[in-house]
Every structure is written in structure tokens, then in C-alpha cells.
Amino acid sequence: MPNINDFGTAPDGTAVKRIILERGDLRAQVITWGASLQALYRRGADHSLVLGADDFGSYLGPMRYFGAIVGRVANRIAGGTAVIDGQRYAFDQNERDCTTLHGGRSGTGSCNWVLEGATDSSCTLSLVLRDGQDGFPGALRLTALYELDGQGGVTVSMTGQCDVPTLCNLAHHAYWNLDGAPTTADHLMQVPAKHYLAVDELQIPKGPPQPVQGTRFDFQKPRVINNPDEPILDHNFCFETAQPDAVLCRLSAGGLMMTVHSDQPGLQVYDASGMNTAPQAGLGGIAYGPHAGIAIEPQHWPDAPNRPDFEQVTLLPGETYRQTSRFHFAEGGL
């Protein structure tokens, strides 16, 4: 029987549930709020591989988006506006009062999803974003499936369907920390992308993809993520052609390696340089500070609705949005 318990009460009065999944060496804890991966443990380690909290209130404050599925449009939309099917729409400008981040204030990461079903090693959640929510047209019906495969992997599969033309670009927004240290200083990362998107002061892409060669963003060979002499890392890495089960990233620390497989054309990586959850404590009872984790988010490229040269994220009636991303863990390093 699946292990399901109460985790808190959402602002709308509905119960937030926690589902505990176990298979092989992994134990995952998923909460219905934001369809979030609250914790992930590997046999033999006493720390979670993702950042999270035991107190639900933290997810309404400094830990918003931690482990959540974010959308209906992950990342940023410049000016909080875009044209959909010939009509211009204005969205919730929830970042600096000028951009739309992760779908707005009531996006998927800030909703209590419905638990549709669960087994010992998987759970399915659903959500309907209403027409006009945060300014987006159309009712968008979403599902998220978490599965432990028994071979060291957790797979997150997402689908979406709409009744009128709308936008859909989801991302899994976990912050990873593989060795349990206060920061990711000892983590090595490899991203086999040859191009990235340079951004302006609002984190909006300011041109076509740029070569990573010789820049701070060159992770074609493994290297440390954080360097005080380099700019912060909160950028999209571009993959020219999305391929099923492609390797988008490898991350290692403490004798453990995570390999990220996904069918998405982009990978947003954020080094959490601005993280500070104090006074709210994370798992283990300690507040998270700068560089406590690293967000690795398969998705489409940011601000695509305003960039006709980018692959688009328009979803039409009769179509199904799909994303599958797998996070696999094994002993070893880069």
C-alpha cells in the first residue's frame, strides 16, 4: 500500500498530502503542493539529495519553487506579454514588476495538485489552470508522474492539454546537493552544450545562442560550478535538436554522480547564488544560504513566445504537451 500522510493545509483550505515512494536504493517524498519533490534519499546516505523543508509554511515563503513543477511557462517572459494566436496578452508581472516568472504568482508551483493515484514506487498528480489565470488564455489540464525505476533513477513525466491556443513549458525545479555539504563548492558539472543564451540585467535572452567555448559557461568538460571571480550562473544551455533520453547534464560530488536525461531542447542552470531561506530551516534544521544547491531544469528556451527564432511553446487544442526527464544516481564521479 502507498504511504500517504498529511503535510499541511493550502491557503484555499485543501489538504496538502505527502506521498512516500520507495524502490531499490531510493526513497522519494512528493507533496501535492506544486507537485514538489520534497526530499530524495539514497540508501547509505543520511542527507536528502534535494533541498526541501519539513514545514509546509516554508513553501509559501522563501522555499517557493523548491522541488516544484513550475509553469504554465517556466522561466521568464519579457515584459510580461506575448502574442498568442494573433492576440496580445498581458500576464502577471511577478518578478521586479516587469517580467513573468514561472507562470506568475499562481502558476503550477503555487497550486495544490490533486493526487490521482499512487503505488509503492510511483504517483500521479493533476492540475487544471483556469482560463485567464495569471493572464494566460485557456484551461490547461496537466498531469505529473513521478516514478522510481528500481535502477537508481527517478523519472518525472509531464503532460498538458488545452481548449484554446495557449502557452505551455514546464520545468522540474529541484535544487540538488549530492554530498550534503552547506554549499556545492565541491560539485563538478558537465553540460555537453556548445551554445548558451546570454542575458540582460533582467535575465532575458538578448540575442541568438552564443558559443560557450572560452567563456564562464563552458562545461563541455567537467569543472567546478562556482567561482567567486566569475559571473553568477542563471542561464539556459542550448541543445540544437531535442532527442529522447539525451544526456543534458552530469553532476558529481562525494563519490556520487547524477546523470540528467531529458527530451527537452534547453537546460536552465542556476547556481543559487542569491539563496537565503533564513529564518526558515530546511531539511536537517539548518537554513539554506548562497550556493546551498544547484537548480538543473530541462525545459524550452526562456522568452520563446517573444522570440520567433526560438522553438515555440504554443500549445493548440488537440495537441498534447509532453516532457520526460530522468535523474539517475550511481557511485562515481566526473
Automatic annotation (TrEMBL):
<protein>
    <submittedName>
        <fullName>Galactose mutarotase</fullName>
    </submittedName>
</protein>
<dbReference type="InterPro" id="IPR008183">
    <property type="entry name" value="Aldose_1/G6P_1-epimerase"/>
</dbReference>
<comment type="similarity">
    <text>Belongs to the aldose epimerase family.</text>
</comment>
<dbReference type="InterPro" id="IPR014718">
    <property type="entry name" value="GH-type_carb-bd"/>
</dbReference>
<dbReference type="Pfam" id="PF01263">
    <property type="entry name" value="Aldose_epim"/>
</dbReference>
<dbReference type="InterPro" id="IPR011013">
    <property type="entry name" value="Gal_mutarotase_sf_dom"/>
</dbReference>
<dbReference type="InterPro" id="IPR047215">
    <property type="entry name" value="Galactose_mutarotase-like"/>
</dbReference>
<keyword id="KW-0119">Carbohydrate metabolism</keyword>
<keyword id="KW-0413">Isomerase</keyword>
